[in-house]
Design goal:
heterodimer, A: 115 residues, mainly beta, 11 strands, 0% helix, B: 112 residues, globular
Chain lengths: 115, 112
């Protein structure tokens, strides 16, 4: 499978718990993006990496959120002390710099439900 | 602060007819625009894009038109097929920066 993969696909947690999601991008892609999508909305940008460097963060990314891409390959997104408002679909996308204006390829997403 | 807007949440079209999906934006610094298609339980899939130096880009049944003066783009699907039924998102990227801004989506239903 050469597409973007995300794990887990679904996560149900209780308010106050920490959760971590993983994204495996397309292998040769050097950019990796995280988005959040809530019902009736389009994807909202959270952050992106070029290789292992986190280059941009949205103001949506509160201090409870942290993302890493330690070796420039897979990435993790951690949410600490989850709140019900964090319930959303978390999408990962990857792209290759310099190719086709950075067309992004999306994974299937991780659906988070905070009870 | 929604910089990319899709004002029609849904659209129904008969099979074989043209589907026209519209998108408006407010940021004049946007220079690259894309359309994505999304099926349930899947991530968005890239469909077609257009640079701000063009006013039209065509790929098979799909054509995107860009009107920079009106800050408006549209996606035409001709002829529409039942398999085109999905949610369509338009997205835009500014000249500087790598953040993509997405609209809220239009759910297209193509009726056989």
């Amino acid at each position: 499978d050469t597409g973007v993969s995300q794990n887990p696909r679904h996560k149900i947690t209780k308010r106050g718990q920490n959760v971590t999601f993983r994204c495996d991008p397309i292998s040769e892609h050097n950019r990796l993006y995280w988005y959040r999508q809530t019902l009736g909305q389009g994807p909202e940008f959270l952050t992106y990496f070029q290789n292992e460097a986190q280059l941009e963060k949205s103001r949506l990314l509160s201090d409870r959120f942290s993302a890493e891409r330690p070796k420039g390959s897979f990435s993790t997104l951690e949410i600490q002390r989850t709140e019900q408002g964090d319930s959303a679909m978390y999408l990962c996308a990857s792209s290759l710099v310099g190719y086709a204006y950075n067309e992004q390829f999306f994974g299937p997403g991780t659906r988070l439900t905070v009870l | 602060d929604q910089q990319v807007k899709q004002n029609s949440p849904s659209l129904s079209v008969q099979e074989g007819r043209i589907s026209i999906l519209n998108c408006d934006y407010t940021n004049s610094m946007f220079d690259y625009f894309l359309w994505y298609k999304k099926y349930p339980a899947e991530g968005p899939t890239f469909l077609i894009s257009i640079s701000s130096i063009k006013d039209k880009n065509e790929d098979g049944r799909f054509t995107v038109f860009l009107n920079k003066s009106a800050k408006h783009l549209s996606l035409h699907i001709v002829p529409s097929q039942p398999g085109d039924s999905a949610v369509y998102f338009c997205a835009a990227r500014p000249l500087t920066g790598n953040q993509f801004y997405f609209g809220t989506g239009t759910s297209l239903t193509v009726i056989p």
